[in-house]
Amino acid sequence: MSKYMTRNQYDRHVEATKACEEKLAIARKKVGAAAEHGDLSENAEYEAAIEESGFLAGRVEELRAALVGCSVIDPRNTAPDMVTMGKTVTVKDAETGSEETYHIVGLGITDTNAGEVSYSAPMGAALIGAHVGDVVTAKLPGGTRKLEITAIAVYE
Prior knowledge:
This protein is α/β, with parallel strands linked by helices. The chain folds into 2 domains: 69 residues, Orthogonal Bundle (Helix Hairpins); 80 residues, Chitinase A, domain 3. 38% of the residues lie in helices and 28% in strands. It contains 3 helices and 7 strands. A hairpin with a 5-residue loop joins strand 3 and strand 4. Helix 1 packs antiparallel against helix 2.
């Protein structure tokens, strides 16, 4: 299965991987330092360092695996009038009339506080392929919503 990310997601993923690798190196030093304190069977510091090291090692592998075979999508190379990954989409709720803006991104680290939505999430999947003026039906965990696409732009 192909994995896609926007450039910003890819960069965030690489930075998160580097930061986690640095934390892992520190955690492994803690294991060595704790081991020097003697009897390991009664060494809580050693146990905590081993646990932290194991968790971080798993996280590093997870982050690295997400980058393997990943394709970075440049939204400028997609149809400008269609919702694709890397686009900012403004929608109007058909029921309430309220407007919302979403940034459609890939499968990498997603900043939901900034309005990012993965193309594989229910909202993102409903919007992909739509054009301005289209009304899409989004089947969300909170219920079904009809949304009119009012604007599409490249997500910077």
